[in-house]
From TrEMBL:
The UniProt record lists the keyword Membrane: yes
InterPro entries registered for this protein in UniProt: Cd-R_transporter
Record keywords, A-Z: Membrane, Transmembrane, Transmembrane helix
Organism per entry: Dactylosporangium fulvum
Protein name stated in the entry: Cadmium resistance transporter
Transmembrane segments: 6-29, 41-64, 141-161, 173-191
């Protein structure tokens, strides 16, 4: 089992979670300079990914939680959060950055978790057959590698959000990009699933 399965798990994680880097960078940028925001984003990412793993493990053992026809409606979560973020951006459109910072607390852990879970439908679809054939020992290795790589993804997302050029861009346009990305993910999930 050794290094081969670890490499497979790392590659599978990277391929199924590349889109999360942009979302994480946007969340980290949204909470830049606000106490506790990094912790909330990381906690939310872990909660959301743990939920993805839980559903994938259960499905690999034959459990079904939702009919397949309902899964696209998970897109309503990022859609609603995107609309909320767009409303907040519009509501504070004329305020200076100093005025906006007092009111904002950055992303909440449960919001990050909801987006991670909703965006993880494709992950679950890929993980279930892999887990079903990997057995309990293999699933344990996959889970350990995936959870370690969530930390790497969070660090990479924060790294991108704090690069001077990216940070300036996200500082200037993040309030627009976050709602657009969340609404886009939600609509894409709904449209592709119907």
């Amino acid at each position: 089992m050794g290094l081969g399965i670890i490499g497979q798990a790392a590659a599978l994680f990277a391929v199924t979670n590349i889109d999360d880097l942009l979302i994480l960078a946007l969340f980290f940028a949204q909470g830049a300079g606000q106490a506790g925001s990094v912790r909330r984003v990381v906690t939310g990412q872990y909660l959301g990914f743990a939920a993805i793993l839980g559903v994938a493990f259960a499905a690999a053992f034959g459990a079904t939680f939702l009919p397949e026809s309902v899964i696209p409606y998970l897109g309503l979560l990022p859609l609603a959060l995107g609309i909320k973020a767009a409303w907040q951006a519009w509501k504070h459109r004329g305020e200076s950055d100093d005025d906006r910072e007092v009111e904002q607390t950055g992303p909440r852990a449960l919001e990050v978790a909801a987006v991670t879970l909703a965006n993880g439908g494709d992950n679950i679809g890929v993980y279930v057959p892999v887990f079903a054939t990997a057995g309990v020992g293999g699933m344990s290795v996959y889970a350990a590698v995936f959870l370690a790589l969530v930390a790497v993804w969070c660090a990479a997302g924060r790294f991108f959000a704090t690069r001077p050029v990216v940070a300036r861009t996200l500082s200037r346009w993040g309030h627009v990009l976050l709602p657009v990305v969340l609404i886009g993910i939600g609509l894409l999930m709904l449209i592709e699933g119907l």
